[in-house]
Here is the input.
Amino acid sequence: MSAMQSFEAGFSVDVDNLDQTRWSEACQRFADYNIYQTWGYETARNGESNVSHLLLKNDGRVVAAVQARIARIPLLRFGMAYILSGPVWRQRGCTTDVEVFRKAVRVVRAEYVERRGLAVRLIPQVGESEKGEFRRILEEEGYVYEPHGRRSRTIVLDLSPSLDELHDGMHPKWRYHLKKARKLNMESVDGEDDSFFEQFESIYAEMIDRKRLTGMTDVGKCRKIQKALIPEERMRVFLCKEEGELCAGGICSALGDTGLYLFGATSNRGTKNCGSYLVHWNMVEWVKSRGCRWYDLNGINPEKNPGGYRFKSRLAGAHGKDVRFAGQFDASPNTLIQLLVKVADLARAELRRSRERITQLCR
Here is the structure.
C-alpha cells in the first residue's frame, strides 16, 4: 500500500490505500462518476492486483479520483496504466473548475509515469470545446494527443424536461414506433439479478448471429462485473416479451449525473414488433427517476452505422445534442517505451483484424 504523499501546497495524494467502500464513498460526490471508474468494473475484469486507485485531496477533502488498470510485460520491463473515463473531478453542485482537472492529470503523470516508470493512456470523459481547452491542458501537462486512438462521439439526451416533453421532443417516426409497440401490450420487466443478464445474453447472441457482426464486446463480462459492484452502483437490465417470448432487451447504468446506455439487443421476432423502442423508453424513464441530468446513448457513427445513428438521434430528438470527446492521450517516461507502446498498438490492431477474418471464414 502506498502512503499519503504530498503534492503541491495544500494538496495531497492517497494511492492504493483504500478499499471498495471508501472508494465508492469518495466517488459518489462527483457528477462525472461512471461505471468504468467503479471499483467493481476493473477488478472484475482484470483482478484487484492489476488495478490502482488514486485520490487527490485539497486540505483533506477529495477533489478528484482516478482508477487505472495496470498491465505489465515482465520480460520487456514494460507496463502501462490505462485510465478509461477518468479522472472523475466534477464536484456535484459546484462550479466546474478546470484547474482541478489539470492537477488531477498532473498527479496521474507524476505517480504512474515519473514514479513507477509506466506509460499512461488516458481517455478522459471530457467534451472537446471549440477552444480545445482540455486538449491544451493535457498537452501542457506532458500528454501527447493520439489522432488514431480512441475518440468517441455520442448523443446525449437532456433529461431536465418532463417525460411528456421528452416524448413530444422525439422524432415523429420514433414516437410512431413506440406507440406501435405499446399497442401490442407486450410485457416489460427489469431487474439487477443474474437471471436478467442470462436472458439478455440469449437474444444478444441471436442478434450477433443475425447481423453477422464481428469484434463485438463480450456482453457476458457484464455478469461478472455486476457481481463485483456494490448495490448502489449496479447496472439494470430491461427486457420486453411478447406472448411470453423474449424479443428485446437493454442494459444501462446510472451513476453521477449521467445515465449510460451500455448494450441493446433484439431477437429475430423483436425486429418486427418494435420491442426495442419500448425497452429504450423504459430505460429513459428509469435513468431520469434515478436523478440523472443526462442520458448518454453511448456512441454514434453516422458513416459506418447510419441505422444506429438514426435510431439514437430520433430518440433524443429536440432534446439531444451531439457530443465529441477529447480523445486519447498518452504519456511515456522515455522514447523507448513510447516506441514499445506504438508497436503494441499495431500488433493488437493486426490481431483484431485477423480474428475478424477468421470469424468471417468460419461462418
Q: What stands out?
A: The domain at 154-323 is CATH 3.40.630.30 (Aminopeptidase). The radius of gyration is 21 Å.
